[in-house]
Design brief:
Largest sheet of chain A: 2 strands, antiparallel
Radius of gyration of chain B: 25 Å
Largest sheet of chain B: 6 strands, mixed
CATH class of the largest domain in chain B: Alpha Beta
Strand order of the largest sheet of chain A: 1-2
Strand order of the largest sheet of chain B: 6-7-8-3-9-10
Structural class of chain A: mainly alpha
Order of helices and strands of chain B: EEEHEEEHHHEHEHEEHHEEEHEEEEEEEE
CATH architecture of the largest domain in chain B: 3-Layer(aba) Sandwich
Shape of chain A: globular
Helix content of chain B: 25-40%
Distance between the termini of chain B: 19 Å
Distance between the termini of chain A: 35 Å
Number of domains of chain B: 2
Oligomer: heterodimer
CATH superfamily of the largest domain in chain B: P-loop containing nucleotide triphosphate hydrolases
Number of strands of chain A: 2
């Protein structure tokens, strides 16, 4: 069908608009991270889209506590929150993936009835605030508040339903014959799981883990309630980047935001092959 | 190299009965084909023999030893799946070696047997390749090789050729039969393709709706179907079936088909069978057992002439009695709409009861 030039122009115009809506804030953050204070401050005289005098000052500020241009100083650097986020989000992902994958496998192969999987997803229907106060009390009792491992534990619990449901769908879709073939060859169930099922599930594991990691990585509420000083995470730390004298420190926030975007992007690139390939079990022609 | 005995074997899934009361003995080294349409219970039977399913009733014995409850890893069976179930994350070599490694075979022995099997199945040049990018024909060879390499006493194949192309299927039919002659395993082959069953099997077990209908050599099952289902299922086209009335014709007995003519019969069992349903009986003959003749016993209008290359199929009759016959290409035929008269080859007439569909008179050697 031949489309009119006007239609094409409108189509591309709309696409451009939506791409801009998505990309400009991100690009703005990137550009702001390299601007000196005069270019990002609300009172600054040199507001520009593109940094005129690119600088590492914002990074130096969040890692070095003080800046030649800013009269404020921070009570701590970004190093510790980045470590806190990395540790809690990674170990939280490990907990969710190990527990979720094994539970999903068990229920997919040997489970009966639909209640247990549904009960797991129901955890997510609960408003987080309703459970966070009891969790705070329990964590305080266990001495887990303001520790990265306490945070990792609750992250693992909170994201377990996602890991479970994603992996269960993948296990349900995997043809049983492949496992039966290995079983009939004389393998034990456990060996089949480790040597056949998990290796074939690598793409599924990778994409589920990335999803769970991003959820953990971007959490604000839980970290806000369960950490106070030593192990605050990047989002909580970012909220503290302001002062009564200067207001919001947008430049510092942009620099931190840029750093925070790095791990998920690296993970995404690392498993891109699996994400693109998806789950194709080439051996099966139905 | 094992005899398999199935006694009163049955399997229910919730309220659905997939298999009921199956009794069959498969001899040591025999090639048995389980043949039937989808959902007839043939795969269920096979999965129970392999140990993937536990029977609801009855027992399975290997050489007199009841194997119920024995996990499939220790039954000593090889299984080739319809969808191959190849381990795509491994190389061809690893796939072939898998069963041997699982059994703890020494490494040198594994390498030797992988080479041997690969050359037998023409997989040698592909040993280093990953299994994920291979064609279906190769995957099928690999699946057979992976099961055959451990030399199981019982070899089970679940529609292994249904996904491969027609030319390769013909090749594999011959190769599978040779493979079995070489290893002398007891082989059970599930298929809905009668050509595979007829060409490869020592005996065929025809099944439908969870019931075993007939077991016999390919020719016995083909020539002497025990009921109308087997008669219609085997053969392409299947056996012609038409209803007739039994009447006395002087000293002899005849089956009358009204406008289509009549045939004389001499078997008293036919009269007895007809007596059960108002003198009616089902008459059957193979499409190739009828020949056009000047004053034939039966007459039908010609509907359609189908030339399939090697032979000609003539479609005859009316909706109540749709008849097909196969004749040589050069046979002189009337035009469509005209009447063809034909004779049935002596000795190839078959009769069935109307109600039960069971064969009358001549019997094959029965269920075993």
């Amino acid at each position: 069908m031949q489309r009119s030039a006007g239609y094409e122009a409108l189509r591309f115009g709309l696409i451009l608009l939506f791409v801009a809506l998505t990309l400009i804030p991100t690009l703005w953050m990137v550009s702001m991270a390299f601007k000196p204070i005069a270019e990002w401050s609300a009172t600054g005289s040199d507001l520009t889209w593109w940094p005129k005098n690119p600088t590492w000052d914002n990074f130096a500020f969040i890692f070095g506590q003080s800046s030649s241009e800013l009269i404020v100083s921070l009570d701590r650097t970004a190093g510790r929150p980045i470590l806190a986020s990395l540790l809690s989000a990674s170990f939280g992902t490990v907990i969710a993936m190990v527990a979720g994958t094994t539970a999903a496998y068990g229920l997919s192969r040997f489970g009966s009835g639909a209640n247990l999987p549904l009960a797991l997803i129901q955890l997510r229907l609960f408003p987080p605030m309703a459970v966070m106060i009891p969790v705070m009390i329990m964590w305080a009792f266990l001495g887990l508040t303001d520790t990265w491992w306490g945070l990792a534990l609750i992250y693992g619990i909170v994201t377990l339903p996602f890991a479970f449901w994603l992996m269960k769908t993948f296990f349900d879709d995997m043809p049983r014959e492949i496992e039966d073939a290995a079983l009939v060859e004389g393998c034990s169930r456990f060996r089949v799981f480790v040597k056949i099922t998990l290796p074939m599930m690598r793409p599924a594991l990778a994409s589920s883990a990335l999803f769970v990691f991003i959820l953990n990585w971007s959490d604000y509420l839980i970290a806000l309630l369960l950490t106070t000083r030593d192990w605050v995470t990047i989002p909580v730390y970012m909220a503290s980047l302001s002062s009564s004298m200067t207001g919001q420190l947008y430049g510092a926030k942009a620099a931190l935001g840029l750093i925070a975007a790095v791990p998920p992007v690296i993970m995404g690139i690392a498993i891109q092959k699996h994400l693109v390939r998806g789950l194709t079990f080439g051996a099966l022609k139905e | 190299m094992t005899e398999i005995r199935l006694s009163n074997l049955g399997k229910d899934f919730a309220s659905f009965t997939a298999l009921a009361d199956m009794n069959m003995t498969i001899a040591d080294g025999e090639f048995m084909a389980l043949l039937g349409p989808s959902g007839c219970g043939k795969s269920t039977t096979m999965n129970m023999i392999a140990g993937m399913l536990e029977p609801t009733t009855g027992s399975i014995e290997f050489d007199g030893r009841d194997v119920r409850g024995v996990p499939m890893a220790r039954r000593g069976v090889g299984f080739v799946f319809q969808n191959y179930a190849i381990f795509t994350h491994m190389t061809v070599w690893d796939n072939l070696a898998y069963g041997l490694k699982a059994r703890g075979t020494p490494r040198a022995e594994v390498a030797r047997r992988v080479e041997e099997t690969a050359s037998l199945l023409q997989l040698s040049p592909l040993l280093k390749r990953r299994a994920s990018g291979l064609s279906v024909n190769i995957l099928q060879r690999l699946a057979i090789g992976r099961s055959a390499i451990v030399e199981p006493a019982i070899f089970l194949l679940d529609e292994p050729l249904s996904n491969v192309d027609a030319a390769f299927r013909a090749v594999m039919r011959t190769e599978l039969k040779q493979l079995q002659r070489q290893f002398k395993q007891t082989m059970i082959y599930v298929t809905h393709d009668q050509l595979e069953a007829m060409t490869m099997a020592d005996r065929i077990a025809v099944m439908d709706h969870g019931k075993l209908l007939q077991v016999g050599t390919p020719l016995d099952v083909y020539n002497n179907p025990q009921n109308t289902f087997v008669a219609g299922f085997l053969g392409s086209p299947g056996m012609n079936l038409m209803q007739g009335h039994v009447r006395q014709d002087g000293s002899s007995t005849a089956v009358d088909f009204g406008a289509h003519g009549s045939i004389t019969v001499s078997d008293t069992a036919i009269e007895a069978a007809a007596a059960k349903s108002d003198g009616r009986v089902q008459f059957g003959f193979r499409p190739e057992a009828a020949a056009p003749s000047q004053d034939g016993a039966l007459r039908f209008p010609v509907n359609f002439i189908e030339r399939i290359g090697s032979r000609t199929i003539v479609h005859l009759g009316d909706p109540d009695n749709a008849i097909k016959i196969i004749v040589a290409n050069q046979t002189e035929l009337p035009r469509v709409g005209e009447v063809l008269s034909l004779d049935i080859t002596k000795g190839s007439e078959r009769f069935f009861e109307i109600e039960s569909g069971q064969a009358v008179g001549r019997q094959s050697d029965g269920l075993h």
